[in-house]
Amino acid sequence: LVDRMRPFTSTIFAEMSALAVAHDAINLGQGFPDTDGPASMLAAAVDAINGGDNQYPPGIGVPSLRHAVAEHERDFYGFDLAPDTQVLVTVGATEAISGALLGLVEPGREVVMIEPYYDSYAACVALAGGVRRTVPLVPDGDGFVLDRDALADAFGPNTAAVLVNSPHNPTGTVLSDDDLAEIARLTVEHDVVAITDEVYEHLLFDGREQHPLALLPGMTERTLRISSAAKTFSCTGWKVGWITGPAELVAAARAAKQFLSYVGSGPFQPAVAHALRTEMGWAAQNAAELQRKRTVLAEALASVGFEVHRSEAGYFVCADPRPLGYADGDQFCRELPARVGVAAVPVSAFVDDKESWRHLVRFAFCKRDDVIADAAARLRRL
Ligand code: PMP
Ligand code: GLN
């Protein structure tokens, strides 16, 4: 194994899901829903398969999906995109991230990212031969904000790109407009590219709204925006994602993408196109359900004795088990499946500064109500 990939031989999701299986635990570790997306989307995929849509689709994605993504970008945010050059369908957001980084980051150049960071960011920057520069989130009440001094320090002459994830995994933070404006200011000042991972764009709670970084002054022409059907339509196994942005940046990601997977899976693409056009009401309803589940799990964790952080969006809530006498989140998560039959993920898996984040644990609430209730009952045995 090459040196640059040595830190990345396993993922925390695979490790914790294996532990969950081994101990027959409820898996609140890996973030995936345990119910299906909209029925008409599932039917559209079956129709596509039965209709013979089973050979290589175009590398950039089927026309119906590229058009549906462009319409989505216009309807929700006012972007005006050419479906043939400014939309690229990818194998999930995961390939969008790797394609964008491999296409845009020269070896030795730096990528600024928020810490904690989604695990694939570090691995993909390493694949590209780049160097990560992390900017920590810092507690602000029961939520998190960016460390502004660290943000300014992270940008420099060697910066190639900033990779921004909001809503944020693992904390469930939606970056404030002020934090986004500061990122935009620095990105323009240093004349670099932004890559935004907005896979949870339709899963915001308590009346919050998604504000894409690409809409800020000077940003549309330098931002690649990434999203995925996985979260919007609860189909994480379909692996249908996309990148949108200026044609030359999309082309850079496309150059890498065509040698990562060549093309994405065929029959799921028209089904996702159908869902983007007709099932955004389902997505809004799903977000309301997730908000309710968030509250149920957060209250259960608090009643057990965890110190619970505010989750503003997405699938996850972070909690601190120190009041329960556990100082190390990693150890806590490795013991939890055997101890009470629940799996969670340590936030330390998403950071370089292990010490500062050692205590925090992430729980997924994208589960059926009975599953959350069962997990809550089990956690009361702690
Ligand atoms: N980015 C973030 C922040 C995520 O949470 C996830 C999935 N959990 C991904 C990217 C990957 O998305 P996909 O499953 O579409 O590859
Ligand atoms: N994104 C999901 C999570 O954060 C899992 C994705 C994966 O298993 N790589 O839990």
Summarize the structure.
The chain is an alpha/beta fold.
Characteristic key phrases:
single chain; 382 residues; Aspartate Aminotransferase, domain 1; Aspartate Aminotransferase, domain 2; 2 domains; 8-stranded mixed sheet; 4-stranded antiparallel sheet; 14 helices; 14 strands; binds 4'-deoxy-4'-aminopyridoxal-5'-phosphate; binds glutamine
Helix segment count? 14
The small-molecule ligands in this entry are:
4'-deoxy-4'-aminopyridoxal-5'-phosphate, glutamine
Give the count of structural domains.
2
CA radius of gyration: 20 Å
Mean pLDDT: 97
Number of strands: 14
CATH superfamily of the largest domain: Type I PLP-dependent aspartate aminotransferase-like (Major domain)
Class by SSE composition: alpha/beta
Helical amount? 40-55%
Architecture overview:
The structure is a single chain. The protein contains 14 helices and 14 strands. With 382 residues, the protein is an alpha/beta fold. It has two domains: 3-37 and 281-379, Alpha-Beta Complex (Aspartate Aminotransferase, domain 1); 40-278, Aspartate Aminotransferase, domain 2, CATH 3.40.640.10. The protein is globular. 4'-deoxy-4'-aminopyridoxal-5'-phosphate binds at residues 31, 92-94, 118, 165, 169, 197, 199, 228, 230, 236, 241.
